[in-house]
Amino acid sequence: MPYNDIKHVLPHFMFQGKYVNSVELGGGNINTTYLLTYRDEKQEYLYTLQHINTYVFKNPRKVVSNIAAVTHHLRSSMLRHDEDPTRRVLELVRTKDGQYMYEEDEDDVWRAYSYIANAAALDVVETVAQMEEVGRGFGAFQRNLYDFDAANLFVPIPDFHNTTKRFYAFVRAIDLNKGGRLHKVHDEVEFMFEHRKMMGEIVKLLDAGVLPLRVTHNDTKSNNVLLDEHTGKALCVIDLDTVMPGSSLYDYGDAIRFGASTAVEDEPDTSKIALDMAKATAFTRGFVDETNGFLTQEELSRLPLGVEVLTCELAMRFLTDYIDGDLYFKVDGPEHNLTRARAQIALLTDIERKEKELYEMTSDLIGKKG
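RESULT FIELD:
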């Protein structure tokens, strides 16, 4: 039962009311999350409690410090622009000693948020209207952090999108073959070597100063934007563990990769996997509406590059973890990471077929807003 796993943690947070129940929420690849219900004589209070994966996040205290700084800035930015931040920004719950996390020991670290009720996080975007709102959500996130100095953020996962270094890690995984699985992935390995140059393009543009450094979310799946269940409008960007300095192309590309795919990330039948251009267009419309005037033309004109790089990068990360023996991502079985890698390879193959169409679409939408 979830309660037995978390009962030692609950008394340390400043939750209102008395504990009623808890359920474990699925869907995350990294942290373990619980929905808590508390109640007093007047009302019910909902919270999310998360057990932080310290294998992935080596310095959870600084990760939470990032989240506190970013959410404070988001709230302040909305207020400055006469926008109501209610339900639109994550709110950390303090511990009874005034901290934003409870640390029993170095491997047992917890944090909590007020739960945003009557909001949906879509694992699968069913309509173009929903996809446009997801684009608006992530675009507004970029806009409201436009004047936040990204250099002040702690980097929770060094070189997270440094595809050059990730490729070197991939090569090391091949050399070590920790999981003894290399003989199963010859075609996938060759695919990565063929795409090595393309994967390094954003890193080169950042290093050259062509692309500016931004505060980026770095996990822009559609289920990381909450949509209001009544209006369908974007409310709040969640899952801020990987907020750090980066390129806007990373956030745009990962969002299209996830939300505009015709299949889930671990679809075993690759014939079902393609880029849905209607959804890609809808996301781009919402994203550009919110960011045009804030992002540079150098960024906007290269948005499709982000789609290609992020799709290939994730394929390589899944493949690397498979070769290593499943050390990073949660898996449902021994072939899960390989299934994921093959799904991303199939998606990238279709993205490359539609590359010209992608560039024409983004150029058209940017031109209309210019």
